[in-house]
Amino acid sequence: MGVVEEAHNVKVIGSGDEATIVLGHGFGTDQSVWKHLVPHLVDDYRIVLYDNMGADLQIESCIFVGHSVSAMVGVLASLNRPDLFSKIVMISASPRYLNDVDYQGGFEQDDLNQLFEAMRSNYKAWCLGFAPLAVGGDLDSVAVQEFSRTLFNMRPDIALSLGQTIFQSDMRQILPFVSVPCHIIQSIKDLAVPVVVSEYLHTHLGSESVVEVIPSDGHLPQLSSPDSVVPVLIRHIRNDIAFFARPHYCSCST
User: Fold this and answer.
1) Quick check: is 157 catalytic?
2) Distances, alpha carbon 150 to alpha carbons 9, 143, 196, in Å
3) pLDDT tens digit string along 193-216?
């Protein structure tokens, strides 16, 4: 294993030869966020896990599954090398978190300023307050405790810098140039990403796309609601967009 791979804790597992799946986690988490999904994939796929950022493993083509900011990182990467992506599966993705004229991102600038100040003044207290809001559970839930653990593992100044970069970003202008098929999966209730954002992505992406709104609560549904979310993820990994256009399929899970 090279220096870069070791630094980012890259793991390559699975014995399947259907395709390679790269799993990218979001802000405040690590590769453990995929622990409920991976067991369902290892027999059929080669799985690449990493803690941001990933490394060049000489992958010729992959299914990229990106959560939150990693979904948009995958989109950016696909602009330069679309040949490396057979599809992108997005979970809780957003091209912009700030509200704008004719765009509902979920936050006003004052909201973000208060969030950044809370992170700056007392990072541990902020984590304890933010984790249950983001996950959609109470402090005693396993998912909230897991997210709290990975948030605590971040150095506060790095967490603040990364949070500012993510929440102040605006990638709406690149969407029309995306050519890789995109599968958009969104919780019906998400503190960070309103459902209308998933429809915005679907409408403005230049590539084929499909949206599935799932009846889960929170920004990390693969961690908080694995029993209902993992089957949805597997369905989107295994099937192309044409499958979801068939009359028998409903794009809103129940």
Assistant:
1) no
2) 15, 11, 28
3) 999 999 999 999 999 999 999 999
Q: Is 183 a catalytic residue?
A: no
pLDDT of residue 37: 85
As a whole number of angstroms, the distance between CA 75 and CA 81 comes to 10
Find out whether 32 and 58 touch, Cβ atoms under 8 Å: no
Q: What is the mean pLDDT of the chain?
A: 86
- Residue 208: which of 190, 183, 238 has the closest Cα? 183
- Asked if residue 187 lies in contact with residue 218, where contact means CB atoms within 8 angstroms, the answer is yes
CB count in 10 Å sphere of residue 22: 24
Query: Which pTM does this prediction carry?
Result: 0.86
CA neighbor of 209 nearest in space, from 35, 87, 70, 36: 87
- Measured over the CA atoms of residue 205, residue 210, residue 214 and residue 220, the dihedral's sign is negative
**Spans of the chain, pLDDT less than 50:** 3-4, 54-55, 248, 253-254
d(CA 65, CA 239): 14
Q: What are the Cα distances from residue 183, in Å, to 5, 46, 48, 140, 244? A: 28, 20, 19, 32, 10
3-state secondary structure of 192: coil
> Is residue 68 flagged as an active site residue?
yes
Q: Which of 30, 68, 187, 209 is catalytic?
A: 68
Q: Which of 25, 183, 219, 236 is catalytic?
A: 219
Instruction: Please list the residues that pair with 183 across neighbouring strands.
Output: 89, 210
Catalytically annotated residue among 190, 198, 224, 225: 190
